[in-house]
Amino acid sequence: MDSCMMKIVEDLTLTNRVFCSKGYDEVIEYLRKLLPFEVNGYEGCSCNGWVIPPSWDLKEAKIFHDGRLVWDGMSHPLAVIALSSPFRGKVSKAELLEHLYFDARYDHVIPYHFRQLYRPWKRSWGFCLPRKLYDSLPEGDYDVVIETIESSGCLKVPEFTIQGRSDLCFAFVAHLDHPGMANDDLCGCAVGVELFRRLSRMKTNYSYKLLLVQEMTGSEFYWNFSNPKNKNKIFEGLFIEMLGSKTGLVYQQSQLGASNIEWALTKALEDLKLPFRKEPFRGAVCNDENIWEAYGVPMASISRFPYPEYHCDLDNPSIISQEMMGEALDTLLRTVTLLDSSAMVSKRFKGTICLSNPDYNLYMDPGQPAYGEEGDENATRWNKLMEAIPLLSAPVCGKRLASEFGLPEKSVMDYLARWKEKGLLDISFMDDSLSNSCVDHPSETHKCKCSH
């Protein structure tokens, strides 16, 4: 199994990946050595109420009681609440407790406090620590110091695009923030980087894009301020998240559950004989899918959520499995294989066509039982395919049509070609649809060499 994904996780988990920070910038530069991302930068702007937080790094963070160090906020990236205000002073135990946060699920873990990243106009100071320490704090006054390094924030979103023969683009999205955690979603980023390292060695029919965003905020700014030529060709998307834990794969549908990329994803999972759970839109995870759908891009997701170490320091490399990341990588490679080897069918007419008219001669007769014409199951399938074509609202994979109606792909493509001859359909890469894909998928075929 390729080792680069695991090395990314091991090297970058304990970094300060808050939205805007020196640590975040360093992580981007690390990943650019593996994949030549372009970096979108947004600063001095807001959109729809979303605000870019300041650049924020910790210089010092400690709690003392009677001169004894009680808690070192520099001990872990989660030990101070994200975007904590600076503070220095003596406080009572009661006041200190108002600024301390613990994970109610466990006694010995550090939780993730992220709210202020989304509400930079409402900041306070604070620490995250284990519940057992919280409960054992002695009475008396405490000396607290939180010293931060802050400046105007620049929200950075790495973007890598593989230009295919067609501009029609499928986007894969993961979030790079969440300091100090491995599975959420550094593993999604690691799988995405390795996926695109492999795809970049190949010539593809369609275009593919990898975006590493700050959860929700990064997607919103990308759609509002990025170069239109980069985003306007995006057709469908897939969010890739939390793919390294030893928990089952979860396919979450797009809002309508009808995109080509999720058809290819489920077919890939079935082809690879991998068990998975299917959930409705936002039924398993609630991340950037809603934002992308709001901008008209169907977005399904693949994850391994839930897992017990979620949003705390137990989410570290010790719970990450190379095998699980490898399964996800193989699934995504197979997904791209299915998409890229399929012709894309688009409708060129409105309304319905009298297909029995000799000018068209495209009618597929299911038979009329009242006249003793007993149509068989195959005739019914052809008739249903015929009736579905006028209802197409977006381009659809020819392979998908054949699969969904249970008909031979070559026969379906021959039938669709007759529609094309009548000027009713556009079909891209029809000559390639029955040939082997340019994308090979087994993860063992390419070994990654990391210099980090």
Concise account of the structure shown:
By secondary structure, the protein is α/β, with parallel strands linked by helices.
Write the layout of secondary structure elements.
Elements: H1 4-12, H2 22-32, E1 38-42, E2 46-47, E3 50-51, E4 55-65, E5 68-72, E6 87-92, H3 93-97, E7 100-101, H4 115-118, E8 127-128, H5 131-136, E9 141-151, E10 155-162, E11 169-175, H6 183-199, E12 207-213, H7 217-225, H8 228-231, E13 234-240, E14 249-252, H9 260-271, E15 276-279, H10 289-294, E16 299-303, H11 322-340, E17 344-347, H12 377-388, E18 396-397, H13 398-404, H14 409-421, E19 425-428
Parallel strand pairs: 7-8, 11-12, 11-13, 13-16, 14-15
Antiparallel strand pairs: 1-10, 2-3, 4-5, 4-9, 6-9, 10-12, 14-16, 17-18, 17-19
Helix pairs in contact: 1-6, 6-11, 9-11
Polypeptide structure, described:
The chain has 452 residues and is an alpha/beta fold. The chain folds into three domains: 4-46 and 154-341, Aminopeptidase (3-Layer(aba) Sandwich); 55-151, 3-Layer(bba) Sandwich (Glucose Oxidase, domain 1), CATH 3.50.30; 344-432, no CATH class. The chain is 30% helix and 22% strand. The chain has 14 helices and 19 strands. The protein has helices at 4-12, 22-32, 93-97, 115-118, 131-136, 183-199, 217-225, 228-231, 260-271, 289-294, 322-340, 377-388, 398-404, 409-421; strands at residues 38-42, 46-47, 50-51, 55-65, 68-72, 87-92, 100-101, 127-128, 141-151, 155-162, 169-175, 207-213, 234-240, 249-252, 276-279, 299-303, 344-347, 396-397, 425-428. It has an eight-stranded mixed sheet, with helices on both faces. Helix 6 links the parallel strand 11 (169-175) and strand 12. Helix 1 packs antiparallel against helix 6 and helix 9 crosses helix 11. It is elongated, with a radius of gyration of 26 Å. Mean pLDDT is 93; it is low at 433-452.
